[in-house]
Design brief:
The structure is a homodimer. Chain A is built from 18 helices and 15 strands. In chain A, 61% of the residues are buried.
């Protein structure tokens, strides 16, 4: 079809052997996590009861540019990496655009998304520390699935607290986790003090991510040999996810391609932060003239309508405070089907880059997102996850702009995962029953009133 | 980890550009399809109202060894081919076997299986003939999904008759088909004469594959510009599926690997026939000393307990007669979850090869299949389809035999697809509610009584 193949493969010698820590190149470093009691920066020893030692080191290190990827993790990456960088020839043709579109596809593994990149790293360090197991929460289930796979590989116990409404509505995700030997508990549950308290106060509750986090943290800190792990937002997660961007960079360089626009969906920021890492480095250094765009749902618009401030990471307000673009930890997004994008805050790294003007952000509605998803599926053959489809929407819009202006821009976007477990949402879309629920100004004002006071 | 990479990739120059027709090398050709009325071999003109012209030519040609793959199909194959040939290092290690295990993984496309290889070919020839659309039936949904994707690509209308019980129990499969623009009708339906007749006689019926075939054929023959297409059993389908075997052969040759045992699951025979095609050619020619094993479920044991005879291909007895290993067209297999393996008969090509002693067959129980599936998922990171897991079971058993004997055999098996839409079955397995239902001798005797009388 053309000189550049449909899929750009990397040879073994071209694969990343170290993660890249974007913080090392940032002009303004991301603000530190604060102790919610003292409001002072969290020290390693304060984090040690919750997180694994090596991961704390990675979390707090703003200076080391490269962290070598341990051989055991490289071995595991072989199962599903390098992920393909695909030239979207079929989509370009369907759109009649002179733009050149590429996507980095992270969905070709059983967890169905990029989450596995960090899950295997976190499981590895837990195992190395001699732990018996880890705990976590999951909403839509992508993270829980990825962590189950990783823990199974390293023979670690894995306790997943799954928001009760998802546990009941997404039994298939639960079964994948069980296949990998994880125990999955609907949250709130009677296995924790916080769970009992919430069930006592709200007997009929279907749970929330904030509550599931609180239960997972409680179990991790009370059970000898356990720690808590998290699939997004944290600096360490973006570090691990840099493997996405490094592979993308290597594939583009192979054919001497320079991106003009890079697009990724943004919930907590794990995918976007990983995809853009090396390109943002070059942009900061003045070596790359490139727009970098975060796409979020109109129903949960942290960047585009939030405030840059210290806030709680969880609804239960037990975790450290992070400075981030936030809608307030009490913000409850409407039931948007892109479960992975329903977080009230945003990675501190990305928040700082956005505040410094290196990163753009835009928000899109759910119906237009599914229209893009269906159009993409029909021509490119991949059924995308709703989260990923936010990036597809904006990539298509930019490509259409190129058709109108005649510009041959190179557009790269992150296709984070597949939508095999999101077909209830597709069904709603097909039946014309999907709608956007956009928060009013008054609602946002109310949830932002609860921000903690930090000088 | 070793000299042979975890995944063997093929360069563009190494990709097959022609399908291989195993019939050309068979010592005894497969028996021809017979007209159910005259009991004489079906001629092309008799098949023309039902099938596409070019596909009839492929169906009836026992002599041409290679059919060039049209460029349009090669373009589409680029989306998801070559599929990886994976060295199962992790599984080998877990089993502690000196055997070298490889699997050809066909699940990395949205249809989730190898079915897309033939679906795109059949859609292409329908489009080339100037047809408006095609009809088909689907049980578990893999074939219907693949055909929907293929028709969407060539802008063909696609009418899928889905067995009612599956339509209701597998709404997600249905939604994927709808995403690709197919119309999906639960069968039996009021849209056909045969459907009305069956609903009148059995008002509460949940349908059957045989009935869905009859409805799809009726609509194809009564609607101008439509033909009927089928995803397995037929010679043409095995021809298209030879792309699996040809890629496998190319990948093995690249590292000078000779297989000692090749294993594939067998329902109608589309995957097995495709995988083994070039290896069977070499075996027939005396150039390869290799065991080739078909694996079927104990609940539907066409090879191991069936009879080699002419039989109806459908329960409605409207299609041509095929000579095959069969359990009788009235045989109703127990609700085994490997829906793709619940066919009463078997490809005529494979049946002849089995009768001639070139092919072995074995049957396995459902519980042991899911045990193998879970073991495989945990170490190799892929959640396999129940159908594919039949091959995994036997590959693991052979590898364990090598551990006991110390033999370093090379085992190659076909991993036809993923199990993302089979999690109800996984759930039953996890909950200990799965059991095998093996037909009694009396049951088989009864269903074999209805074989048509052909001299």
């Amino acid at each position: 079809m053309a000189q550049i193949p449909y899929k750009i493969y990397l040879d073994e010698s071209e694969l990343p052997r170290a993660w890249y820590n974007l913080r090392a190149d940032m002009v303004n470093k991301p603000a530190p996590l604060l102790n919610p009691g003292t409001l002072k920066p969290m020290q390693a020893e304060e984090l040690a009861p919750v997180f694994c030692e090596e991961l704390i080191r990675q979390e707090l290190d703003n200076d080391t540019a490269y962290f070598e990827i341990p051989q055991e993790i490289l071995d595991f990456y072989q199962m599903y990496r390098p992920s393909p960088l695909v030239r979207a020839y079929f989509l370009e043709k369907a759109l009649g655009t002179p733009a050149k579109i590429y996507y980095k596809f992270e969905g070709n593994n059983t967890s169905g998304s990029h989450k596995l990149n960090s899950a295997i790293a976190q499981a590895y360090y837990a195992k190395k520390q001699g732990l018996a197991g880890v705990t976590t929460e999951t909403g839509a289930g992508q993270w829980g699935t990825a962590l189950s796979m990783a823990c199974s590989y390293f023979d670690l116990d894995c306790k997943v607290y799954m928001v009760k409404v998802s546990y009941e509505q997404k039994p298939f995700r639960r079964e994948v986790m069980r296949t990998y030997g994880a125990s999955v508990t609907p949250s709130p549950s009677l296995t924790t003090e916080i769970g009992k308290k919430i069930l006592n106060e709200h007997p009929g509750t279907t749970g929330s991510l904030g509550c599931a986090i609180s239960e997972a943290v409680e179990v991790a800190t009370k059970t000898p040999g356990y720690r808590y792990v998290l699939g997004s937002v944290l600096n360490q997660v973006l570090l691990h996810q840099s493997v996405i961007g490094l592979e993308t960079e290597a594939a583009l360089k192979k054919y001497d391609i320079k991106p003009d626009i890079i697009i990724g969906c943004a919930g907590g920021g794990s995918n976007l932060g990983g995809l853009i890492a090396p390109f943002m480095r070059d942009k900061i250094r003045g070596k790359l003239d490139c727009r970098i765009i975060a796409v979020e749902p109109k129903s949960c618009p942290s960047f585009t309508r939030g405030t840059y401030a210290y806030d709680f990471c969880d609804t239960g307000m037990v975790c450290p405070l992070a400075k981030m673009y936030t809608l307030g930890s009490s913000f409850i997004p409407s039931p948007n089907h892109a479960g992975g994008l329903r977080y009230h805050g945003m990675s501190s790294i990305l928040s700082q880059l956005y505040d410094d003007g290196y990163l753009e952000a835009t928000s899109v509605g759910q119906v237009e997102v599914f229209q893009a998803a269906e159009q993409f599926a029909r021509v490119e053959g991949i059924l995308p996850a709703p989260e990923s489809s936010h990036a597809i929407r904006v990539a298509i819009d930019e490509a259409i702009r190129c058709r109108e202006s005649g510009e041959e821009k190179t557009i790269v976007f992150g296709l984070t995962g597949t939508g095999y477990f999101d077909l209830v949402a597709y069904e709603k879309f097909h039946d014309g029953k999907m709608e956007d629920q956009i928060p009013t100004d008054a609602e946002l004002e109310a949830s932002l009133k609860n921000l903690p006071r930090v000088e």
